[in-house]
Amino acid sequence: MMKRRVAGQDEAKLMRRIVKDGLRPNEEREAAIRRVIRSISKGKVATYGQVAAAAGYPLYHRLVAKILRGNDGSLPWQRVLGAGGQIKLRGEAAYEQRLRLEMEGVRFKGKRVDMEVCQHRFRTWELE
What percent of the chain has pLDDT over 70? Predict the structure, then answer.
């Protein structure tokens, strides 16, 4: 029982360290994430976690969201979604994201994108 508790504490420490590290500016890491976002094809989508992993920074999904929030319009922000194809934005922004995706041919199943059909398949060796 004690061992399980320690493992959980270690995991929590690691997550806090990753979140803290993600808040620090790092041009190389942010450039890698931007490159991955730009590689998502029109009519396809990826989750925040998939983008982070393809950039070589698994568990940095929050940094992906931060980069998209500070986007100057040069990134196809509408192609990045929450887990399971869920639009995480609210209100008018969520409506705009869905509309942009539908205009690109992305199919929805209710409120979620049909990830089986529309998920981008990263080929990380092409991202350099």
Answer: 86
Each residue's pLDDT tens digit, 20-55? 776 667 899 999 999 999 999 999 999 999 999 999
Structure confidence at residue 65 as a pLDDT band (50, 70, 90):
very high
From the candidate CATH numbers 3.30.420.40, 1.10.10.10, 3.90.180.10, 3.40.190.150, the one assigned to the domain spanning 2-126: 1.10.10.10
* Cα–Cα distance, 26 to 55 (Å, whole number): 13
pTM, rounded to two decimals: 0.80
Sign of CA dihedral 111, 117, 123, 128: negative
